[in-house]
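DM from R.C. (forwarded with permission)

"hey, sorry to bug you on a friday — could you get me a structure for this? deadline for the figure draft is monday and I only need the backbone to look sensible"
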Amino acid sequence: MRFIRTKDVLRMLGVSRTTLWRMVRSGAFPRRVTISARARGHVLEEVEAWMAERADRSPARLDVLTTQVTHADDSAGLSTSVISATRSSGVDDAGPRHGSRRRRGQGRSS
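My reply, with the result:
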């Protein structure tokens, strides 16, 4: 048995961290396991088995899994249309995140 870290799983699958998190949360992908007090990872054999199973499925079956992941997001209060609208809004994704830029006039007051 071999453990692999999340970044390796992302490279293997070719998906984003958010997509992987959504698949795990919906039960469509194996969960991480605790390796030590500060390290978690996936079991390589489980990831490879999931990939093999996924490769053997028909396209119609894949649509059902995609729909399940989308419905899991909807139940968490996230709407696919909102996510799509955010992505297509033309906002530059290269800038800082999480409010690290202050708007004019909103500096700290002394």
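R.C.: lifesaver. The chain has one domain: 3-80.
me: no worries. The two ends are 58 Å apart (CA to CA).
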